[in-house]
Design goal:
Blueprint lengths: L1 H15 L2 H20 L7 E7 L4 H12 L3 E7 L2 H9 L5 E5 L3 H8 L4 E5 L4 H29 L22 H32 L2 H5 L5 H31 L7 H25 L3 H17 L12 H8 L2 H15 L7 H21 L5
Parallel strand pairs: 1-2, 1-3
Antiparallel strand pairs: 3-4
Helix pairs in contact: 1-9, 2-7, 2-9, 7-9, 7-10, 7-11, 7-13, 9-10, 9-14, 10-11, 10-13, 10-14, 13-14
């Protein structure tokens, strides 16, 4: 009965605040409408400066093929490499494609011609991927010429190996499909982590916690009264995210929705328990916010949300192994994209259950009730 009254109090406090219900409803909407387009590591619209020393039909054909790929925008056509470098220095261009003199003549005579690619490597990812895209287009251009010349020759040139690509789980290589499940995890982490972290300390600042402390409420009951409302809020947010992903992007889980809800129920206990631990040790809301922001920043950056954990150094991979966010991202992406079930995700189940047990026991023990 005491738990019932505590839950009633918590829900009344949540709905009495005009800001929190709006936050719970509109934050998923804004996150899923904007972030999948912004949190995109596909490199497009690369500014290209072209230096054409040949001015032949073949060099023009190559330039048109590069621009038609959709990855490059023609920033300028420079008469010399020095002028093209000035375009890079000013930020007008990202890459330089320099076509050497006698490009067409060398192609026709010896079937070999040289081009030079210069990349602005201040942004290493953009420079590296841009150079790789440009090299791939060059190879396609060479293959087109080989086919053209081979078919017109007496002895056609044929390839002995044919490679057919088949993309599993994300057929069209759409980065949004990969990011949306992880963004849902980040959203749940922020809402069900920050709100509990501010809950107890808010009552400390208002002085209302003293009224609870003089009652016969046990610490376990008190912590459960704080956890359950945000557990419910987490399910509401998750359901809103499912609906938005389906309506806006046509993205539905390949696996069972119940599997996601099961793991979500455990994960919410993990981050809410962490939030309550922080709240127990904090004396002001400002202190709780800064501590939670510190932990959230580490959890998100070392979770594999934006970069693969396997690409991180060994010390970062070790931190990722004790990062509950990384396990839940694995669950969401596996169920959403591959249709994995509980049996395939047992390691993540035991890891998240362990985190939930540790954090919530810690929250119960660290709550100091004075009478």
């Amino acid at each position: 009965m005491i738990l019932k009254f505590l839950l009633e109090k918590e829900f009344k406090q949540i709905f009495r605040d005009s800001f929190l219900p709006r936050l719970i409803l509109f934050m998923p909407v804004m996150m899923l409408i904007i972030m999948p387009w912004a949190a995109n590591q596909e490199i497009k619209n690369i500014q290209l400066s072209v230096v054409d020393h040949d001015h032949s039909s073949y060099s023009e054909r190559l330039i048109n093929k590069v621009i038609a790929s959709g990855y490059f925008l023609l920033a300028d056509v420079s008469p010399s490499n020095d002028e093209a470098l000035r375009s890079i220095e000013s930020g007008k261009a990202d890459l330089i494609l320099e076509i050497q003199p006698d490009f067409e003549k060398d192609l026709v005579k010896s079937r070999v011609a040289n081009v030079m690619i210069s990349a602005n490597a201040v942004n290493g990812t953009k420079g590296g991927l841009g150079s790789a895209y440009l090299s791939t287009i060059m190879n396609d251009f060479a293959a087109d010429l080989t086919t053209q010349w081979g078919l017109s020759a007496e002895n056609p040139i044929t390839s002995s190996v044919e490679v057919i690509s088949h993309n599993k789980y994300n057929i069209y290589m759409d980065y949004k499909v990969f990011m949306i499940p992880a963004l849902v995890v980040m959203l749940l982490t922020m809402i069900t982590g920050f709100l509990p972290a501010l809950n107890i300390v808010e009552e400390k600042e208002a002085g209302t916690i003293e009224q609870t402390n003089v009652t016969p409420v046990k610490r376990l009951t008190f912590i459960m009264g704080k956890l359950i409302p945000y557990w419910v809020i987490g399910f509401v947010v998750l359901t809103i995210c499912f609906l938005l992903a389906t309506l806006i992007y046509g993205l539905t889980p390949a696996g069972n929705l119940l599997t996601i809800y099961l793991y979500t129920s455990i994960y919410i206990l993990v981050v809410s328990g962490l939030g309550l631990v922080v709240s127990n040790y904090s004396n002001t809301m400002q202190q709780a916010m800064f501590v939670m922001f510190f932990f959230m920043l580490i959890l998100i950056l070392l979770s594999g949300l934006f970069t693969p954990v396997s690409s991180m150094p060994d010390w970062a991979q070790f931190i990722a192994k004790i990062n509950p966010l990384s396990y839940f991202i694995q669950v969401m992406r596996s169920v959403y994209l591959k249709g994995s079930g509980i049996m395939e995700l047992l390691p993540q189940f035991f890891a998240l259950s362990g985190f939930a047990l540790v954090f919530n026991l810690w929250a119960i023990i660290s709550y100091r009730k004075s009478s």
